[in-house]
Amino acid sequence: MERKIIFATGNENKMKEIRMILSDLGMPILSMKEAGINVDVVEDGTTFEENALIKATEIAKYVDNCIVLADDSGLEIDYLNKEPGIYSARYAGENTSYDIKNNLLLERLAGVPDEKRTARFVCAVAAAFPDGTTEVVRGTIEGRIGHEIIGENGFGYDPIFYLPEYGCTTAQMDPDKKNELSHRGNALRAMRAIMEKKYENTNR
């Protein structure tokens, strides 16, 4: 039986990135919607890792012989005591647009010099395997918060996340380049290595 991956997200932008990064794994990757799963998981953990594990293990209850992956990711701004952190998606309200969220963060950092605008994207990816075992990994990318919203690629906080060594925000980057550097790319590649090792002696 072909092994499938179900990724516990309904975010189409995220699914696009995930499929690009895991394209050579040789397993079909389905979103929850594509797998016919409509479950609202309460993410009440206190860290990215806890929330990712909560999601993966909860969705695993609804599937057979599938690997369930889940991620929890967000932006940590050092000057704001690592806000918005695990509340990144719900910052300034769950259904608030990222334009509003980004503008609000820029306002809160108005007048703050570049050296104090350090920030990172964090992504924890958890896996719940059919044999009942779980794994969780973390990926990060360091940068700083820019002074304006700029760039059409990417999503979420990408237009304000500036990478000094590249002279642009992650929203200005080519998607392939962004995936090579990003927190989600780093975490997914670490998880891919775990999965390859786990299944190297079995038939896919």
Structure description:
The protein has helices spanning 12-21, 48-60, 98-108, 175-181, 183-199; strands at residues 4-7, 29-31, 66-77, 83-84, 118-128, 134-145, 161-163, 168-169. It has one domain (4-199): Maf protein (Alpha-Beta Complex). It contains 5 helices and 8 strands, in the order βαβαββαββββαα. The chain is globular. The termini are close together.
State the gist of this model.
The protein is an alpha+beta fold and 204 residues long. It contains five helices and eight strands.
Secondary structure elements and their pairing?
Blueprint lengths: L3 E4 L4 H10 L7 E3 L16 H13 L5 E12 L5 E2 L13 H11 L9 E11 L5 E12 L15 E3 L4 E2 L5 H7 L1 H17 L5
Parallel strand pairs: 1-2, 1-3
Antiparallel strand pairs: 3-4, 3-5, 5-6, 6-7, 7-8
Helix pairs in contact: 4-5
The parts where pLDDT drops under 50 for at least 5 residues are none
Q: What's the count of strands?
A: 8
| Gross CATH architecture | Alpha-Beta Complex
General shape: globular
Oligomer: single chain
Structural class label: alpha+beta
CATH topology: Maf protein
Query: In percent terms, what proportion of residues is strand?
Result: 15-25%
Write down the overall mean pLDDT. Answer: 92
Question: Which H/E pattern describes the elements?
Answer: EHEHEEHEEEEHH
Total individual domains: 1
Helical residue percent band: 25-40%
Largest sheet: 8 strands, mixed
Distance between the ends: 8 Å
